Structure formats: structure tokens, C-alpha cells
Amino acid sequence: MLTRLRGSGRRLLDGAPAFRRGFRAWRGERPFWAAVFTFAAGLPILYWPYAHLSLGGIPLALSTASGAGSLLIGTLLLALGIGLCCRPHLRVFAGIATLLLALVSFPVANFGGLFLGVASGLVGGSLACAWLPPQADEPTATGEECGGG
């Protein structure tokens, strides 16, 4: 199937290794996994207060008066996750803010998105606080050192 590709499909496949090496180098210069966990913490916190589920024909709604608090906390966690990728030098501020928002979401936002948001937020905030930028004399992870290519 791959041998029958022509034109733009072939060029896309030919450029994939270079894109992967570039993404790996970009990811190594910022707290990528902290950003992923922080962004993932905001999703369940935003989802559960506004979800209307049905369990065996019985409506189950978790929306409470804390819907505004869930909206605020979830949106801030999403923004902090994106901010960690865009501005890695603000990692300590974003990490501490993520930890505090995750802890505050437990009583405010339906047990922090049913514990999913709290757990992911605590991991993301901890990773953001612990991450250090690479030193200038360290080689970048381009794949050649590991035998990849």
C-alpha cells in the first residue's frame, strides 16, 4: 500500500522523520509532559459539572452551584497547560498555580473532576516545578545518538 503512494502522500511520508526529529528537539526544550498533564487536568474538571448522563434510564446530573468555579478552574488549568509549552521560563509559577488549582478543585469542582483532575493536576504541577531547562553544552535529542533516524 505504501509503495503505491504518489505525489503529496509520498512527500508527506518522506518528511516524517525530519518532522519527528524537529518535534523531539522542540519537546526537549520545554516541560512538555508537565503541560500535557496540566492540560489533561482541566478537561475532567470542565466536563463533569456540565455532563448529563443517564444510568439505566435514570438521569444523573452532577451540575451543582459550583459550575462557575469548575469553569474557572478548568479554564485556568487549560491555559496553564498551553502556557507551559509556550513560555517554559514560567514553569515554577505555572507549576505552583497548577498545584494550588488542583487542590482547590477538590472541594469546589465535584471532587476535582472525580479525582481525575486532582491526580493529573498534582502530577503536572510537580513535573513543572521539577523540570530544568537543558544546558547549552548538552547535545540535543535528535535521534542520531540513540541509533534512531
List keywords for this structure.
6 helices, mainly alpha, 2 strands, single chain, two-stranded antiparallel ribbon, 149 residues
How would you sum up this structure, described in words?
This protein is mainly alpha-helical. The protein has 6 helices and 2 strands. The protein has helices spanning 8-28, 32-47, 67-86, 91-108, 110-114, 116-130, and strands at 52-55, 58-61. The chain has a two-stranded antiparallel ribbon with strand order 1-2. Strand 1 (52-55) and strand 2 form a beta hairpin.
Q: What topology does this entry show?
A:
Layout lengths: L7 H21 L3 H16 L4 E4 L2 E4 L5 H20 L4 H18 L1 H5 L1 H15 L19
Antiparallel strand pairs: 1-2
Helix pairs in contact: 2-3, 2-4, 2-6, 3-4, 4-6
Would you tell me the structural class of the helices and strands?
mainly alpha
Please, what is the average pLDDT? 83
Q: List the secondary-structure elements in sequence, H or E.
A: HHEEHHHH
Unreliable residue runs: none
Number of strands: 2
Rg estimate, integer Å: 20 Å
Estimate the helix proportion, in percent. Answer: 55-70%
Major pleated sheet: 2 strands, antiparallel
Report strand %: 5-15%
**In one word, what is the shape?**
flat
End-to-end Cα distance, whole Å, is 23 Å
Physical arrangement of strands within the biggest beta sheet: 1-2
Total DSSP helices: 6
